């Protein structure tokens, strides 16, 4: 499978310390010093994400380009996607750009044919599996299994997410959390609704619910549960603030349990200005900033992954079209039917 | 002196204009444009406070003459919701707003439960004190408003653009939790706690945990266990306020840590 080969090749390179999370066919990341100056005004719809870090990036872009003004509308990603669809239906176009924390919301907009095509030299900065004709991922995150290191070793954790349902582990999860629901959506796509429902029922028998995934990781660290289901960066952040934290990460293989999802951006209006703005987000400097400060995974070539991300040779994500994660409604219905929401 | 009163005292002394923040989305009907012209309406608010107090006195007199039915303590809620001063204090200083509700229900409960005269008068005094404190807070807010030091009251909530703004919003939301609980709306209070956690604190804690994991752990427990349980178990308003005050102290620590971190953070370019 092409996707699997990509990840294996990537992992081998990363393990060798050569090219973390990227491959040579991609163009090298561009420095902002080599980007055109931005002149004019744009309106960005910004999905609520990494606290002030995305805001810092946007401010820095404006400060670097005195002739450029960015108007920002902020809100939950899904609400902004719905607003864009509603505005398009009404024949109104207020947003020039949409930066979503979740590629599913991107899919809602691209499916309606509202996104502008992007030039190949821009999308070519990302590896081919992250190249799309009308949107671009900005940074990535991977689903993980944080485990309590006092009780378990990485090899104790099954590398098949489905096996967890029949395990004896006490599991922490956050079913109401959007990233968890995207993961369940990926499982539905890969395995179907019945298998997913059975899996959720099985897990629910020995799971403890938390409001958010940082809460899950902290519960794992405290030993309240043995393992958890969470995005990678929560564990890295916890370990940054508490270096002796009793938590480490395990990964399943080639299933929804190690889904790589991404934040993404698309242009809604034609012209060079929105495209050049996107180039700034893919610049070496912005990608490094988000990797170092937000622990997100850079998706362009030549930028180091966040400190503390375990050996990428362990990661083998499934082949899922990220934009297909858009519609959470069937997933939420299914989770309600199973009784976990 | 409990903590909210000491906070109020500090405000009076220091004139901390920033604490008179514009609140959004009120539960008891439209805000009314008068809240953006406090000075012009101070006389009216004063009259309303006097009227509310005289109505309580009249109610207690009726109670003595004809019992609970004649007193009709339910009128206390109707009276309070009918005055413009209600939204003036709700939009300007939620901690006192909560105390007013607490005082109101203190009087109402004392009458309905046919408590001793001493208890009824004690609750009446508490209610009256909270109303006068509220009027004082509105007068102070009016001065700041006249000097252009307070924001225009908005009817929609803005999204915080960074973690420090989010912490300020959390502080306001927690005050509203006490207010809703004092209004005898525990479900609404718990909903605010959950929404505040998911929509605001969740966005902050990722950044905060890298600075002080134990502080995040404490606040996680406060948001998800301590505060909701205090409300659901029917703790007194004072006890719920104590939990909130403790959380606000932790949030102050978080604010200082995040501020320092923002100053030290490397530039994007």
Summarize the structure.
The complex is a heterodimer of chains A (341) and B (269). The radius of gyration of chain A is 20 Å and the shape is globular.
Spatial separation of the terminal alpha carbons of chain A: 35 Å
State the assembly state of the protein chains: heterodimer
Our measurement of the CA-to-CA distance between the termini of chain B, rounded to an integer number of angstroms, reads: 50 Å
Radius of gyration of chain A: 20 Å
Percent of residues of chain A in beta strands?
15-25%
Strand tally of chain A: 11
**What's the CATH architecture name of the largest domain in chain A?**
3-Layer(aba) Sandwich
Overall shape of chain A: it is globular
The poorly predicted ranges of chain A are 1-25
The proportion of residues forming helix of chain A, as a percent range, comes to 25-40%
CATH topology of the largest domain in chain A: D-Maltodextrin-Binding Protein, domain 2
Mean pLDDT of chain B: 84
**Radius of gyration of chain B, in angstroms, nearest whole number:** 20 Å
Question: What is the class of the largest domain in chain B in the CATH system?
Answer: Mainly Alpha
DSSP, total strands of chain B: 0
Q: How would you sum up the global shape of chain B?
A: globular
